[in-house]
Design a protein that fits this description.
The structure is a homohexamer. By secondary structure, the first copy, chain A, is of the alpha+beta class. Chain A has a single domain (5-135), classed as Tetrahydropterin Synthase, Chain A, CATH 3.30.479. Chain A has helices spanning 26-33, 66-81, 86-89, 100-112; strands at residues 5-17, 42-54, 84-85, 120-126, 131-135. The first copy, chain A, has a 5-stranded mixed sheet with strand order 3-1-2-4-5. In chain A, a hairpin with a 4-residue loop joins strand 4 and strand 5 (131-135). The longest helix of chain A is centred in the middle third of the chain and has 16 residues, at 66-81. Chain A is elongated and about 60 Å long. The mean pLDDT of chain A is 96. Chains in contact: A-B, A-C, A-D, B-D, B-E, C-E, C-F, D-F, E-F. Chain A binds chain C through residues 12, 14-17, 34-36, 38, 40-45, 82-85, 88-89, 128-129, and chain C through 12, 14-17, 34-36, 38, 40-45, 82-85, 88-89, 128-129. Strand 5 of chain B pairs antiparallel with strand 1 of chain D.
């Protein structure tokens, strides 16, 4: 029976964002999102951990070359998000609130199209060292 | 289909404890628990990671406001355990040995009553950077 | 002879900023500041370590109560900078570029007025885990 | 019903290794493994996290004494791998490429024989802070 | 001219303590030391970093063998403090308040007698990740 | 008066090495260097922190662009040391024992020629999380 192994690659990006629901007024947004609804944005050093599950190649011993994985993340996620304003500079959060939950889901959907479907894919996103997210949940 | 996301909040507390079985003599306790059975107690900086699994609210993008989760942990766990002697100052470890396993189970049971039952709940407890616990196990 | 001890307190804040020189055009700003000159801002989880040097009180054994120090940092730095846009939401960086160097100098100048002059004061500011600053230099 | 708890113990070792497939020429090995195929070896500080799942003893509150677990890891893994050349100084990687995937599988197979079969066993291996592996996958 | 190099060794110990001034009443102690004056003690995972400054031996390239330094710290500090109650189980804090400042000074004084006087010696003590101390100050 | 600021940049490299004095026999080398004298080499993930002290440019607010500093470290240190055998693949440790002390001194000497002499330069090198070095010492 083939042995499944999970490989992980950690990357990071720095971005600004603002949390708010457009149809709510400022008072309601501040009540729900607190300081995170500051209209002039705030920001984070996001740490991103991508997990791939698959069977190691019997010759190379690699599930997938982590350099290849790192390049895919760089080109499809970091080049779009790093040193950007997530609300203004990306297409993903025009109508979707850029909570850590939604950022993780978007990153999953972006990468799912780029990673061979024979591999399972999971995203862990640290907004701060103390607040983080995993998607999907097994 | 609804998308389940796991959110994590990391908190910490500093406490003293002693591991021992009352019906055993000192020699037996030292044999089993080593330095951890010191009658005058020792202590730890415990790091506590609470994991909640649920579906993000389509409007806010939050599974649960992490500030709300942090407040629940503060009021129900940290206010009881932080800067306390777990054996003497809490009601939970009068007859139960305060191993990391048991502390994690107790924290789970405390929080399970405070967290909406639509959410799955998991506890990770670091006694030291090198010794840690997860409960429950999926 | 009195024994001098250094005490350190680590705090953090999340903020957005943009690096640029107003009298330069966009091309020149991008050449010098790269992605950091993005007009829509980006952001960081800043870690701030404040160092105080003084002689411990012979009775309490404290150079200064770290809780007091934490409150001073909270009121004078974090309440102004956390979840803010450093360029737009603070008075300090209207004409001063919010590089990590300048943020550290400003934090020093703010705290120097609030910390008893019998104590030496030093600021360490992490913009990321890999880029950080100390001011002043002994 | 018995409550299952996962306990974790983190250890580390420092080792040299080289990645290559013997039947490939140098150009092919460099194409696949990059700098990791350097014939004179390079090395890592490996962090190893062993996870054991079981039911805490009702008297001691321990799933397993972490000191006992640490001793088993020391004797069966660290004494063989620490400050060693994985390709030359161990018997495991004579024909098997010492990728992080394969090292994790080997460590699992070594420990599986030493850990009581009533416990589930999992291995997490950090080759660097940013590249890591888990085996087996639930 | 000889080149001075600083070498650092990080160790850790887990201990319980209580902060209070015996001639003060409980209200005064709680006012000054807050939760740290809990009569039943609390505890910490202390991280200890010892810094030695000297000239590397031209043959070995060592200022001092870090294994030797580690053994000296183990025998003279860790064996006395690890898994102990600093107030009750050691001789040093019978009349001296075990603040991080005083613990660092005591560790310095213990080690200064054991480390060759040709080396400069410095102590850094982390009580928590966010509260730490250095002694002496250059 | 100009305000001096210290800027830090953290990089890392993975390398193999062996500690030994060629004119000593194996027994003597093992007595002094222990497991570090293993003839087949072992390795480390070295973390390197470079500190530059200077006065921020009044217009840009930079002491030195950290991207420029990072590029200098990459080209002059990492390209030579990363994924290499320090004893065999570099010119620096043919006659010099690659202790952390000597690696730090060599990195200082390499970078001192590449960094403008108006800046002070300091090297911190982590061989492991628990063993590290600083050179020069102020």
């Amino acid at each position: 029976m083939d042995k499944k192994v999970a490989i992980f690659r950690k990357e990071h990006f720095n971005a600004a964002h603002r949390l708010f629901v457009p149809e709510w007024d400022d008072a309601k947004n501040e009540e729900v999102f607190g300081k995170c609804s500051n209209p002039n944005y705030h920001g984070h050093n996001y740490d991103l951990v991508i997990k791939i599950v698959g069977v190691p190649d019997p010759k190379t011993g690699y599930v997938m070359n982590l350099k290849t994985l790192s390049d895919i993340i760089q080109e499809n996620v970091l080049d779009k998000f790093d040193h950007k304003n997530l609300n203004l500079d990306t297409t993903y959060f025009k109508k979707l609130n850029p909570t850590a939950e939604n950022i993780a889901i978007i990153i999953y959907e972006i990468l799912r199209e780029k990673i061979d479907s024979k591999f399972d894919l999971f995203v862990r996103l640290y907004e701060t060292e103390r607040n983080f997210i995993e998607y999907p949940v097994k």
